[in-house]
Automatic annotation (TrEMBL):
This is Proteasome assembly chaperone 2. Keywords: Chaperone, Nucleus, Phosphoprotein. Forms a heterodimer with PSMG1. The PSMG1-PSMG2 heterodimer interacts directly with the PSMA5 and PSMA7 proteasome alpha subunits. The keyword Chaperone applies. GO terms for cellular component: nucleus. Chaperone protein which promotes assembly of the 20S proteasome as part of a heterodimer with PSMG1. The PSMG1-PSMG2 heterodimer binds to the PSMA5 and PSMA7 proteasome subunits, promotes assembly of the proteasome alpha subunits into the heteroheptameric alpha ring and prevents alpha ring dimerization. It is found in: Nucleus. It comes from the Eukaryota. Its main location: nucleus. Pfam families: PAC2 (PF09754). The keyword Phosphoprotein applies.
Length: 256
């Protein structure tokens, strides 16, 4: 993977509602990013399937696996899409391998798209926007001013053990999968990382994914805004063909 110092890597966390993965689908599909390789790891449950971004009958039979890398050279963007869950006790080794790859490839920063359980929000979070961000110390220097101009809200610290009143405060991302581990490891390794997340509930999470990519777009302008109306903006994202079966196929007629 040849990258420049300005190249960010987008990647999802396997988190509640699979919102990060759905958001990555929208980015890859809308920008028509090209698959350039695979991220080989024994930390994910193996899987294989048809091309999730098929546009013609000819390319619909191309195979996809559990961790693939996509690129858009004209915009210097790289995306890693994950499509399966972690094998037990393998999430931390995966984080270490991923961050080692990020360092060796020389990418500018990692942008993690994630989600967290909405029912575990505190009173302050219930009264405000459902979106939050986190920046590692090495990222704050370069993007803090831009983030502040957007009036975004940083993920608050909460009690490490919610049931204990005198517990210390720390960053908690319940339902966020490996998000917290990735963030902590990036802080200690001085890797530039930004985490963007939304508080969600399990269900039809397509609106959450559209909201998350619009949140990302406020910062990075992947798509130039055409309107201040978020519903108009959201309609610009291209829904991949694989989403037709997001909730399974229709009921078989033999049932009736």
């Amino acid at each position: 993977l040849n990258t420049s110092l300005s190249t960010p890597i987008f990647r999802p966390a396997v988190s509640v509602g699979n919102v990060g993965q759905l958001a990555m689908d929208l980015i890859i599909s809308t920008l028509n990013m090209s698959k350039i390789g695979y991220f080989y790891t024994d930390c994910l449950v193996p899987m294989v399937g048809n091309n999730p971004y098929a546009t013609t009958e000819g390319n619909s039979t191309e195979l996809s696996i559990n961790a693939e890398v996509y690129s858009l050279p004209s915009r210097e963007l790289v995306a890693l899409q994950l499509r399966s869950i972690f094998i037990k006790y393998k999430s931390k080794p995966f984080c270490e391998k991923l961050l080692s790859w990020v360092k060796s490839s020389g990418c500018a920063r990692v942008i993690v798209l994630s989600s967290s359980h909405s029912y575990q929000r505190n009173d302050l979070q219930l009264r405000s926007t459902p979106f939050r961000y986190l920046l590692t110390p090495s990222t704050q220097k370069s993007v803090q001013n831009k983030i502040k101009s957007l009036n975004w809200e940083e993920m608050e610290k909460s009690r490490c053990i919610p049931e204990i009143d005198d517990s210390e405060f720390c960053i908690r991302i319940p339902g966020g999968g490996i998000t917290k581990t990735l963030y902590d490891e990036s802080c200690s390794k001085e890797i530039q990382m930004a985490v963007l997340l939304k508080f969600v509930s399990e269900g039809d999470n397509i609106p959450d994914a559209l909201g998350l990519v619009e949140y990302l777009n406020e910062w990075l302008q992947i798509l130039k805004p055409l309107s201040d109306d978020p519903t108009v903006s959201a309609s610009r994202w291209k829904i991949p063909s694989s989403w037709r079966l997001l909730f399974g196929s229709g009921l078989p007629p033999a049932l009736f």
